[in-house]
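DEPOSITED CHAIN:
***
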Amino acid sequence: MKLNIKKGKVILAAAGPGDPELVTVKTARYLGMADVVLTDRLVSEIILETYVSPKAEIIAVGKQCRRGVSTPQRTINELLVEYALQGKLVVRLKGGDVSIFSNILDELEILKANEIEYEILPGVTAALGAAAYAGIPLTARGYSTAVRFLTYYKSDVVSEEYWKELAETSDTLVLYMSSETLGTVVEKLRQYNISPEKLLAVAEQATTPMQNIHISSFDDYEEKLKGKTFLSPSLVIIGKVVSLHQQFAWIQNSNSAEYYFKPLVAKVNSITENQNEAKHVSRA
């Protein structure tokens, strides 16, 4: 006899880049309805405190680049399926936008494989939030007609031919997850003769109270930014539009060295190993 299993639903939702007021109305509505919320590290605690029902279970499944405490994607997939198969409404809450440099494809594949209903809710991605809060229009008329979202975290991500193209383009370049490799990015673009006058900005913890915007040209990079450690999350903007920051910046640098998003200190175990040891966010 075939069992009639009532399946729940998964909402793949975006929390925005940091400022809790940048979350969309639709995401906030689903957070209020959710039975379970699986949340990234780069999600403001204010969003969880304000919009999530007190009856909901919140599970932190954050990732932290190159840190052993990150939650494996396999564990996140297992949690999505496990709770959805219990007939629950699950919100998978991601920092920034759900489709820009996230593992949404892995999650979509596991949901489709298990015939679980889902929705994808867009949000403010880090590039748009950081640029706006830095007073840098990414495609300002007369400065740039296109913008490229990129990432550089290891040497085989970008080919030599593409480095040459990036050095020559007038497009605005926005690099996610690349502040730690900024020195190599500068070196590679210089190798292919990027203009020494071209500017770059590092937006550190953008849209949060700890926001800092650091700017240099390629000519004075060593003097202003080389060797500097930037707090996560940080994002790099390269292009002529960066010059607009000085004129249109509307937020002063905080000069804070404090993390807005707390670094991870524990790892969520695989649900098949021990679901009860999953790291739950305190509702106190």
Summary: DSSP finds ten helices and ten strands in the chain. The mean pLDDT is 91. The chain has two domains: 9-125+260-277, 135-248.
